[in-house]
Every structure is written in structure tokens, then in C-alpha cells.
Write a structure and sequence with these properties.
Blueprint lengths: L6 E7 L2 E6 L2 E6 L10 E5 L2 E6 L1 H15 L1
Antiparallel strand pairs: 1-2, 1-4, 2-3, 4-5
Length: 69
């Protein structure tokens, strides 16, 4: 089973995005889903697979926080 946590795109150069996961920053490829700075995304195997609305991303992140306590 794979669990993906939403991250926020904070920078893009060509086909690479920097995604922020609550302070941890990772690089992701944008060739499958075109994202822009400020988008919330799901990344798998280094590729952005899906964009989420801000509301949906925050709901997921809040659920994750509450379950981790």
C-alpha cells in the first residue's frame, strides 16, 4: 500500500517542481500533470500525479495530523 501526502508547489523550472511537505522540500517531475506555483499536488515515484484543491489538501493534511497524535 502506498500513502501519498499532499504537498504545495513552491518553485518550477522547466519540467521540475519543488514541492513543500510541511517544511521538507522534494523535487518532482511535471511532465504528466502541469502544475503551477501554489498548487497542491500528489506525487508518486517522483512524478506529480494529481492536483488537489486547497480545501481538499488541507482536509487531508488535518486528518493526517489528527491521526498522527
Amino acid at each position: 500500500m502506498c500513502l501519498s501526502i499532499p504537498g504545495k508547489v513552491i518553485d518550477i523550472e522547466e519540467d521540475k517542481a519543488i514541492v513543500d511537505y510541511s517544511g521538507e522540500k522534494r523535487e518532482a517531475n511535471t511532465s504528466l500533470v502541469k502544475a503551477k506555483i501554489g498548487d497542491y499536488v500528489i506525487v508518486n515515484a517522483g512524478f506529480i500525479m494529481e492536483k488537489l484543491s486547497k480545501e481538499e489538501a488541507e482536509k487531508c493534511l488535518n486528518s493526517w495530523k489528527n491521526e498522527s497524535i
